[in-house]
Amino acid sequence: MQKKPAIPKGTRDFSPRETVRRKYLIRVIEEKFQRYGYAPIETPSFENRSTLMGKYGEAGDRLIFQILDSGDFLKRADKDAWAQGNSSALAPSIASKVLRYDLTVPFARYVAQHQSEVCFPFKRYQIQAVWRADRPQKGRFREFYQCDADVVGADSLWQEVELVQLYDDVFNALHLPVCIRLNSRKLLAGLAEVAGISDRFAPFTTALDKWDKIGSQKAVAEMRQAGIPQSAIDALAPFFELDTASNQQRLEVLESTLKSVAVGQSGIAELRFILERIQDHGLKIAELDLDLTLARGLDYYTGAIFEVLGKGIALGSLGGGGRYDELTGIFGLSGISGVGISFGLDRVYLALEARGLFPDLAGDKPQLLFVHFGAAEAAYSYRLVAALRDRGVSCELYPEAVKLKKQLAYAHKNQVPYVAVAGSEEVASQAVTLRNMCTGQQETLSRDAFLKRVLLFHTRSEKTD
Amino acid sequence: MQKKPAIPKGTRDFSPRETVRRKYLIRVIEEKFQRYGYAPIETPSFENRSTLMGKYGEAGDRLIFQILDSGDFLKRADKDAWAQGNSSALAPSIASKVLRYDLTVPFARYVAQHQSEVCFPFKRYQIQAVWRADRPQKGRFREFYQCDADVVGADSLWQEVELVQLYDDVFNALHLPVCIRLNSRKLLAGLAEVAGISDRFAPFTTALDKWDKIGSQKAVAEMRQAGIPQSAIDALAPFFELDTASNQQRLEVLESTLKSVAVGQSGIAELRFILERIQDHGLKIAELDLDLTLARGLDYYTGAIFEVLGKGIALGSLGGGGRYDELTGIFGLSGISGVGISFGLDRVYLALEARGLFPDLAGDKPQLLFVHFGAAEAAYSYRLVAALRDRGVSCELYPEAVKLKKQLAYAHKNQVPYVAVAGSEEVASQAVTLRNMCTGQQETLSRDAFLKRVLLFHTRSEKTD
């Protein structure tokens, strides 16, 4: 006898109810991606080691899962690394494949590899699992899904406008109020130039990114530690607290500060274009908030950057993205600019659950269950089951003639809304008794009337789906 | 500069066109699974080593991908195994997680682990990737999808009937003519008993399974090698060549042969029930063929077994399944019988492609592209883009005001069916010129007439989808 089975930490089983909800969420996002002209691709779960390693910084590399080579991997093992007990030096000789860590680098690899087939500007979306050997905690898993939409090969700011609207459309379809934070790496570069800390830009943005998360005091402390002088911090801090003004007013304040800084002016012009276009069209559910503390830790962003927060939900970011240059350059294809956004599927799921926003979904239960009394009744019932399935109704015949109580308990536990009873009387009169499991009401109907009634319920539930 | 990027052998990138087709195929299968009352679950991509190892036989174990432990894995490495250069002895000490090899063992683990939440009979489906370190060849990959539907906790033969109909329904929806081969492990056990080779049942069924694939002569040779006497083979061979008779006639032949063999009689009664019920209801596209050479290599099958072949397609099996007992017993939950079927997604895909059976699918291209002439025209066009997206139309604005020729080439290459032209004249008169990219015809319409026209095309294409 084995001990009770378990799954690796940081991974999850999804029950029918959870799976149906995840599929619903993916379907909503996917439908909007397609509506905006993004087409799906998929890449392998594992890539060659050289494709991913070194692309996420040292900390990222450590979180990449490696696949042990098959067969007699010791033949190629690095003997020196073993002798030194150096795991990270040994690994490359025995693990030549690694699990996908995000969807961005595989996308860049895809574009570079298939550049002759791809038609630029290339708008792709990708919804697949990624794996990270991170310490599991609430809302952080070792296997989780990313949902990315990117367009590469176009510099146009219309793409940024469209991606803000895409975020708005998805969250509107989910009925989840959000705030889209907007900023530009160019503005931040301009401010760094004004404050004379351009040489500390990377640690500056890394610390700034935490302004909201750990509080301004701790973020400032981190900047000091990174060698950014207090005078620079004092000069910049007011911009990180521009809470009260409108987005346009914030831009005006920046305009005068960055008057003589080219990169800053360029950032202002870009954000102005995006904000004005969004103003023209309006947003359905999202609020768009120019927030100078948004920095996005990832080094590869070069222009506008986005982050989505659920309103009144302390779950961290529900998604993010931005403009990058040269992403495919790491794979030998240079001069390609791109911009993209990502949805954190697991967090959006948690947000919808917390807000009770999942609709009543079909798919984790049949709409109708026929109870089973014996061979003749089952044959009679199964004919109706087959007829209803042919018309699109999800239904089933309880497989065995066990006690009625047990069969009804099955219907209850699975939340089947209707039960059909066809006992010997019903068979004799070619009828069916239909029972509403919610109200307990039941009615005996002719076979035809029964089919019509069920199809009516079915059509109604399809419409509200 | 890096060399041209590539992906690991046996894996694949899927282009938009391929991904859209795969999604279509999954959607068709999934919709039928749900209609038959099967609910989806998902399990993690990797399981604990002990969950999967030893469940697929020695040959299977060798094909399981192992994940190198993160961090300083050498700390726990088996020094003796290293000293002996024994890779397979070393692996357990440095790789405690392994990639999913099929969906059946994880399902058994799921049921055992969640037995208190699961309501039996439990009908689940699962569509996820699996990984095997197999030698890649045509139609065989190291990463591929399985689509399984199983019901556990019910002995009823109605499940077998339903699963045959489910196969029929899916292939009918795909317009792919198939033959469903049907047999029973009990019949084979009965025949082995009659021939006095019950002690060689496993090698007998393994060789029998190849009767079709490598030909009867080679299969017979393999039986001889496995110690099955020629006299037994001579006695059994006629049953493996019962091609001409109807399914019912074949059962009659067997009936007399197996008269005094309990397990054989039980197999006959079961198949008779299944065949009669299917006869009552009929099949839409599939042919059901009782074939005594069908054995299904997997040891765990105990009752009816199935295999699907495409008619006139030499691709091997498109799916298979059967009745098993005690699958969850390996995880400590005994006395649970189950039956299930599986679809080989990649092979079904190849079959549909070979037969030209994929419909014209949306999703890999927008339905409409607005060309881009400049700021004012783009603003005018984008308003229409947003309005159409709100009404469900997949459309886009070309991101930049490059030469018209280049924009039209983009539409052509992406097979966008309609292009909308809104130049300065159209903007002035609040009109749009709509061009059918297939016929080359174009017409200038008022804004309202344009929207109506596009929505009409859209509704039509939705209907044929």
Structure characterization notes:
By secondary structure, chain A is α+β, with helices and mostly antiparallel strands. Chain A contains 19 helices and 16 strands. Chain A folds into two domains: 16-64 and 101-355, 2-Layer Sandwich (BirA Bifunctional Protein, domain 2), CATH 3.30.930; 366-464, Rossmann fold (3-Layer(aba) Sandwich). Helices cover 43% and strands 19% of the residues of chain A. In chain A, 47% of the residues are buried. Chains A and B meet through helix 1, strand 1, strand 2, strand 3 and helix 5 of A and helix 1, strand 1, strand 2, strand 3 and helix 5 of B. Strand 3 of chain A pairs antiparallel with strand 3 of chain B, so a sheet runs across the interface.
Distance between the termini of chain A: 45 Å
The oligomeric state is homodimer
Full CATH superfamily name of the largest domain in chain A: Bira Bifunctional Protein, Domain 2
Task: Name the poorly predicted regions of chain A.
Answer: none
Question: What structural class is derived from the secondary structure elements of chain A?
Answer: alpha+beta
| Coarse morphology of chain A | globular
**Total strand count of chain A, please?**
16
Strand content of chain A: 15-25%
Largest sheet of chain A: 8 strands, mixed
Kindly provide the radius of gyration of chain A, computed on alpha-carbon positions and rounded to a whole number of angstroms: 28 Å
Strands side by side in the biggest sheet of chain A:
1-5-6-11-10-9-7-8
CATH topology of the largest domain in chain A: BirA Bifunctional Protein, domain 2
CATH secondary-structure class of the largest domain in chain A = Alpha Beta
Architecture of the largest domain in chain A, CATH level 2? 2-Layer Sandwich
